[in-house]
């Protein structure tokens, strides 16, 4: 039997999620429909700089091949980055425990699993990864793979609703 405090914690969490879901859903809807949203005054200048750096326009809408290429390119760059960090972590600053590099096969498996957001872990993170190895690879992948997943969901929905065959802009999503 679960302690009453645990059940209360779960009930409070469910209540909190249900309370904020409508507002969060409305915000995401406005963002994905390119409508004004809370925080635009602060975020739009930052986004504009990133778009210029990437050489894209938020108004440009990609077809399937372009969108898929952008997704695979982003994932490929992230894969190479993560693999390099995991296989060279012994030389990174902050390796106070003197942890060695991950073997190539474990680094490959870890990179592939975190990149696909399955997060399989065949190692003990506390004794295999130093702070920077974890921060620069796993944490980045957990953030970006979730972002890629949300982008693909938005494109998937647009694929059904748009009549012109475009899916939106991957870099904007």
Explain what the structure shows.
It is a single chain. The protein has 173 residues and is mostly helical. The protein has a domain at 61-161. Helices cover 66% and strands 0% of the residues. The protein is built from six helices and no strands. The chain has helices at residues 4-32, 40-54, 64-87, 104-115, 125-128, 131-161. α3 (64-87) runs antiparallel to α4 (104-115) and α3 packs antiparallel against α6 (131-161).
Topology:
Elements: H1 4-32, H2 40-54, H3 64-87, H4 104-115, H5 125-128, H6 131-161
Which stretches of 5+ consecutive residues score pLDDT under 50?
Answer: none
Helix content estimate:
55-70%
Rg, rounded, reads 20 Å
Termini gap: 44 Å
Strand residues, percent: under 5%
- Please, how many helices? 6
User: Structural class per helix/strand content?
Assistant: mainly alpha
What general form does the structure show? globular
Mean pLDDT: 90
Order of helices and strands: HHHHHH
Transmembrane segments: 67-86, 131-157
Keywords: Cell membrane, Ion transport, Membrane, Potassium, Potassium transport, Transmembrane, Transmembrane helix, Transport
Organism: mine drainage metagenome
Pfam family, one: KdpA
């Amino acid at each position: 039997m679960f302690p009453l405090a645990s059940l209360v914690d779960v009930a409070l969490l469910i209540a909190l999620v249900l309370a904020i879901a409508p507002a969060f859903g409305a915000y995401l809807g406005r963002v994905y429909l390119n409508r004004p949203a809370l925080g635009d005054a602060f975020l739009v200048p930052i986004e504009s700089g990133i778009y210029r750096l990437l050489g894209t326009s938020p108004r440009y809408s990609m077809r399937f091949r372009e969108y898929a290429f952008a997704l695979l390119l982003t994932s490929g760059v992230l894969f190479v980055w993560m693999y390099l960090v995991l296989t060279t972590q012994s030389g990174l600053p902050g390796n106070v425990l003197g942890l060695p590099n991950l073997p190539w096969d474990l680094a490959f498996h870890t990179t592939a699993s975190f990149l696909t957001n399955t997060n399989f872990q065949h190692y003990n993170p506390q004794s295999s990864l130093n702070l920077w190895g974890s921060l620069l690879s796993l944490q980045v992948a957990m953030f970006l793979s979730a972002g890629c997943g949300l982008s693909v969901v938005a494109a998937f929905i647009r694929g059904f609703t748009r009549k012109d065959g475009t899916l939106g802009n991957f870099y904007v999503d």
